[in-house]
Automatic annotation (TrEMBL):
<protein>
    <recommendedName>
        <fullName>2-dehydro-3-deoxy-phosphogluconate aldolase</fullName>
        <ecNumber>4.1.2.14</ecNumber>
    </recommendedName>
</protein>
<dbReference type="InterPro" id="IPR031337">
    <property type="entry name" value="KDPG/KHG_AS_1"/>
</dbReference>
<dbReference type="Pfam" id="PF01081">
    <property type="entry name" value="Aldolase"/>
</dbReference>
<dbReference type="InterPro" id="IPR013785">
    <property type="entry name" value="Aldolase_TIM"/>
</dbReference>
<comment type="subunit">
    <text>Homotrimer.</text>
</comment>
<dbReference type="InterPro" id="IPR031338">
    <property type="entry name" value="KDPG/KHG_AS_2"/>
</dbReference>
<comment type="pathway">
    <text>Carbohydrate acid metabolism; 2-dehydro-3-deoxy-D-gluconate degradation; D-glyceraldehyde 3-phosphate and pyruvate from 2-dehydro-3-deoxy-D-gluconate: step 2/2.</text>
</comment>
<comment type="similarity">
    <text>Belongs to the KHG/KDPG aldolase family.</text>
</comment>
<keyword id="KW-0456">Lyase</keyword>
<keyword id="KW-0119">Carbohydrate metabolism</keyword>
<dbReference type="InterPro" id="IPR000887">
    <property type="entry name" value="Aldlse_KDPG_KHG"/>
</dbReference>
<dbReference type="GO" id="GO:0008675">
    <property type="term" value="F:2-dehydro-3-deoxy-phosphogluconate aldolase activity"/>
</dbReference>
<keyword id="KW-0704">Schiff base</keyword>
Length: 220
């Protein structure tokens, strides 16, 4: 029995259903717990219904819990997952999906058994092939711009045309369309929708406007 058989195709379908809801996934690093719900609500009301909250801050897990309770219709991804232990924490706080910056054998093995789908991070064809043998077909391409950007993704489509990606890293309002024009790109991730200055000022209206602009501009 190949490893590939262990991962049902439903996992790919689950990720597709999440990623196809929004062409842009805001990537959030929440510094103050009191910002979590108003920030998420502003993005959601602006039309961005899939959010990635990274585990880069001390209050991240509590923030995810609160956002899940306040916005049950949003799809919440837990990002910067580095270990199976963090993957388990994401499951416990009700993540809809998990996102990793890169991927280890341990994460692939855990992801195959988890009820929560993983979007594994890759930067090279070799990494992509490792994920492929575990049955993964959907990946985060990170760091996108530093790893060759649009040209790299076009090249990936040659040997592995069925793989699809959510590129993240160095993507903003000016180059998102270049990525979204590629057949093997489902959506893009970015932090440009949540400028620190606006969060510090608690200017949720401005963030809602940025979200609305992105949702309208990059709509399918």
């Amino acid at each position: 029995m190949t490893i590939e058989k262990q991962l049902p195709s439903t996992r790919t379908t689950e990720l597709d259903s999440i990623c196809l809801k929004a062409e842009v996934i805001p990537v959030l690093a929440i510094q103050r717990i009191e910002d979590a719900v108003p920030l998420a609500r502003a993005l959601f009301e602006g039309g961005l219904t899939v959010l990635e909250i990274t585990l880069r801050t001390d209050c991240a897990l509590e923030a995810i819990k609160r956002i899940n309770e306040a916005l049950p219709q949003a799809s919440i991804g837990v990002g910067t997952v580095l270990t199976p232990a963090q993957y388990r924490q994401a499951e416990e706080v009700g993540a809809d999906f998990v996102v990793t910056p890169g991927t280890t054998e341990a994460l692939y093995r855990y992801g195959v058994t988890s009820p929560v789908p993983m979007l594994p991070g890759v930067a090279t064809v070799s990494e992509l092939m490792t994920g492929w043998q575990y049955g993964y077909r959907r990946f985060k391409f990170f760091p996108a711009e530093a790893s060759g950007g649009v040209k790299a993704l076009k090249a990936f489509a040659g040997p592995i045309p069925e793989a699809r990606f959510c590129p993240t890293g160095g993507i903003g309002i000016n180059n998102a369309e270049d990525y979204l024009a590629l057949k093997n790109v489902m959506c893009v991730g970015g932090s440009w929708l949540t400028p620190k200055s606006l969060i510090d000022a608690e200017d949720w209206d401005a963030i809602r406007s940025l979200a609305r602009e992105a949702a309208e501009r990059f709509h399918h």
